[in-house]
TrEMBL record:
Stretches assigned to the HTH cro/C1-type domain: 11-65
Protein name as it appears in the record: Two component response regulator
Keyword Magnesium part of the UniProt annotation: no
Organism: Candidatus Scalindua brodae
UniProt entry tagged with the keyword DNA-binding: yes
One function term, GO molecular function aspect: DNA-binding transcription factor activity
Length: 106
C-alpha cells in the first residue's frame, strides 16, 4: 500500500478515536471538508502547514500520524490494510501471502 493511503487511514483512525466527523475536524483545522476527505482517502498528502493544523485540531503530535495501523487494535482497520495490500500484488506475492497467513493462523 502506498504510504499516502496509510497516512489517510491513520488520520481517519485518529479522527474517529476523538469522535470527530470529517467536517468538524476540517473546520477545527481551517480546511475544507472536501480536502479532508481527499486526505483520508489517500488522494492528497497535506502540506506541512496543514499537517500542523490538523495535529493541533486533533490534539496529537505530528509523529502520531505516522504510527500506522499495523500497531492498531482495531480489526476493521487491520483488515482494510490487508485488503489494500493484496490489491496491488501479483500472483507470486499473493501465493506467498497465503502461505504466510496459513502459517500464522496455526
Amino acid at each position: 500500500m502506498k504510504e499516502i493511503k496509510l497516512f489517510g487511514l491513520r488520520l481517519k483512525e485518529l479522527r474517529t478515536v476523538k469522535k470527530l466527523s470529517q467536517e468538524k475536524l476540517a473546520q477545527k483545522a481551517g480546511i475544507s471538508a472536501k480536502y479532508m476527505s481527499r486526505i483520508e482517502m489517500g488522494q492528497h498528502f497535506p502540506s506541512f502547514d496543514i499537517l500542523i493544523k490538523v495535529a493541533k485540531a486533533l490534539n496529537v503530535e505530528i509523529k502520531d500520524f505516522f504510527e500506522y495501523a499495523h500497531e492498531s487494535e482495531n480489526p476493521k482497520v487491520l483488515k482494510k490494510i490487508i485488503s489494500e495490500l493484496l490489491k496491488d500484488m501479483d500472483v507470486y506475492k499473493l501465493r506467498q501471502s497465503v502461505k504466510l497467513l496459513k502459517a500464522l493462523s496455526r
